[in-house]
User: Which sequence fits this backbone?
């Protein structure tokens, strides 16, 4: 009798494969059915994996902005515009900074009572903010005599490194309007979650419009400003 029909468990040899199979079923029932169930489980797993690969598409790649060294993440290049319900903007008082460093003065929203305000929430380390700076500068040159421009810069006013970065930014880009330093408190009060964010306030300092992202166009910002003049 051929050894091909030999039982691997007890060593007995049988005349035919059928006899070996019957022996396994009766004498080694657990081993016989266990091995077959294990093979079946492997086959089923392979089938499910193949179905998953065929039917599930990979997630599309998302575009993320270059993060800054602050805790405020830059917004995406997409623009979000919100026309608000004229809610009053919170007042604030923050350290003022210019191209030479801290001025020693505190800048507040209330000191510009009765005048429309263009609020820019930004970071000097935000790539999208740098991209938008020429646009904001051009708008300020057109409307700066009728609208107060304030850039609220996210950072630590007590940090010499940050003060140097902020002052160099103002000097390099020639942004000679009001710049204030915020450690995150005013950002939070205004619900700002990313930079750049632009908030347009009317003469009563009610929020008229809000734009988020470097995709904001000059035309869109000007249209919002015209509503508060």
Assistant:
């Amino acid at each position: 009798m051929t050894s091909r029909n030999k039982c691997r468990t007890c060593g007995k040899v049988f005349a035919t494969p059928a006899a070996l199979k019957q022996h396994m079923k009766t004498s080694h029932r657990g081993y016989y059915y266990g091995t077959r169930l294990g093979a079946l489980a492997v086959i089923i797993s392979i089938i499910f994996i193949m179905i998953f690969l065929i039917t599930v598409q990979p997630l599309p790649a998302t575009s993320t902005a270059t993060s800054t060294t602050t805790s405020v993440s830059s917004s995406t290049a997409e623009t979000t515009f919100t026309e608000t319900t004229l809610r009053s903007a919170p007042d604030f008082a923050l350290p003022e900074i210019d191209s030479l460093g801290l001025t020693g003065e505190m800048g507040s929203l209330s000191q510009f009572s009765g005048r429309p305000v263009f609020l820019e929430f930004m970071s000097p380390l935000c790539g999208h903010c740098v991209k938008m700076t020429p646009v904001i500068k051009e708008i300020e040159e057109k409307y700066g005599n009728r609208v107060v421009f304030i850039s609220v810069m996210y950072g630590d006013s007590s940090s010499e490194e940050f003060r140097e970065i902020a002052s160099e930014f103002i000097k390099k880009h020639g942004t000679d309007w009001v710049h204030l330093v915020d450690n995150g408190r005013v950002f939070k009060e205004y619900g700002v979650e990313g930079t750049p964010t632009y908030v347009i306030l009317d003469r009563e300092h009610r929020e008229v419009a809000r734009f988020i992202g470097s995709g904001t166009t000059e035309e869109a910002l000007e249209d919002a400003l015209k509503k508060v003049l």
